[in-house]
Amino acid sequence: MTQIEIDEYWMKQALELALKAQDVGEIPVGALLVKDNQLIASGWNRSILDHNPTAHAEIMALQQAGQTLSNYRLLDTTLYVTLEPCIMCAGAMIHSRIRRVVYGAKDFKTGACGSYINIMEQAGLNHYVEVTGGVLAEECSSMLSAFFKMRRTQKKEQKRQQN
Questions:
Q1: Cβ atoms within 10 A of the Cβ of 114, count?
Q2: DSSP-derived pairing of the beta strands 130-132 and 100-105
Q3: pLDDT digit string, tens, across residues 21-52
Q4: pLDDT for 156
Q5: Beta 77-83 vs 130-132: how paired, if at all?
Q6: What per-residue confidence (pLDDT) applies to 114?
Q7: Which residues lie below 8 Å from residue 162, measured CB to CB, with a gap of 6+?
Q8: Cα–Cα distance between 85 and 81 in angstroms, integer?
Q9: What's residue 122's pLDDT?
Q10: Of 3, 27, 38, 78, which residue is 20 to 30 A from 61 by alpha carbon distance?
């Protein structure tokens, strides 16, 4: 398999995790961590469910991976995530020493891997994470767009019912 095929395979798995988040009312973002083409950990957004602003899909996967590997340093791993990581998640990836992050949809409002800001290329960091963006971008973007469209419709309906 080529690297592109491997990336698409794992991103499809991350999309399945994003559906789990959506099913419980969370923003549909899924993430998983892979080492030597083996799944190490997975996560999906849980911020609303857990009342925790740090419970992003990436953080959930990194925490699980640390437990699985009994190490906070997640060397030689790749994190796949359906939405470009935010500043918090990018920082956690640098601290955990992952080798590579692969994301699907760009996030022009809070993306920290080049769309809004590029944390990953700041001079002077003690570790640099390789970034590959746009893997299955259309599928990832469509899922998020449909979710937010549904949310807006729900809010309009709630307003209508209150009036």
A1: 16
A2: parallel
A3: 999 999 999 999 999 999 999 999 999 999 99
A4: 86
A5: unpaired
A6: 95
A7: none
A8: 8
A9: 94
A10: 3
Side chain identity at 120, as an amino acid letter? Answer: M
**If you compute the radius of gyration of the chain from its CA atoms, what whole number of angstroms results?**
16
- Residues assigned a catalytic role: 58
Place of tokens 């800001």: 117
Task: Name the amino acid, one letter, at 117.
Answer: I
Residue 17: what residue type? L
What are the tokens at 7? Answer: 């990336």
And the tokens for 122?
A: 């700041």
> Which residues of the chain carry a pLDDT beneath 50?
none
Sequential DSSP letters for 101-149: EEEEE--TTT-TBTTS-BGGG-TT-S---EEE--TTHHHHHHHHHHHHH
